[in-house]
Amino acid sequence: MVTPVRVVIAVCLVAPFVAMLWVGSYAKTDPTFIGVPFFYWYQMAWVLISTALTMTAYRLWQREQRARAAAQGGAAE
């Protein structure tokens, strides 16, 4: 069943793949950040962003599963 929460979870998990596979968007040297070319710091930034998005997706999934279990438990009584 597709729910809005599951759509958000999917977007959180797919966004890093799209960002990294679209090489043309970051295959350049400028702007530099602390002397590091854009190509490198962009990828390193996505490591942190991907971690945050994966954590968000996991927390949303847990919350949905708890709500589903509570709804099924309440319906059984």
Overview of this protein structure:
This protein is mostly helical and 77 residues long. The chain has one domain. It is 74% helix and 0% strand. The chain contains two helices and no strands. Helix 1 (4-21) packs antiparallel against helix 2 (38-76). The radius of gyration is 18 Å and the shape is elongated. 3% of the residues are buried. The mean pLDDT is 90.
Element string (H = helix, E = strand): HH
What would you call the quaternary organization? single chain
What is the terminal separation in angstroms? 24 Å
Low-confidence stretches: none
- DSSP E strands, number: 0
Tell me the major beta sheet: none
The total of helices stands at 2
**How many domains?**
1
InterPro entries: DUF3311 (IPR021741)
Transmembrane segments: 7-27, 39-58
Protein name: DUF3311 domain-containing protein
Keywords: Membrane, Transmembrane, Transmembrane helix
Strand-helix topology:
Elements: H1 4-21, H2 38-76
Helix pairs in contact: 1-2
Pfam families: DUF3311 (PF11755)
InterPro entries: DUF3311 (IPR021741)
Transmembrane segments: 7-27, 39-58
TL;DR?
The chain is mainly alpha-helical. Helices cover 74% and strands 0% of the residues. It has helices spanning 4-21, 38-76.
Descriptive tags:
transmembrane helix; mainly alpha; single chain; 77 residues; membrane; DUF3311 domain-containing protein; 2 helices; transmembrane; DUF3311
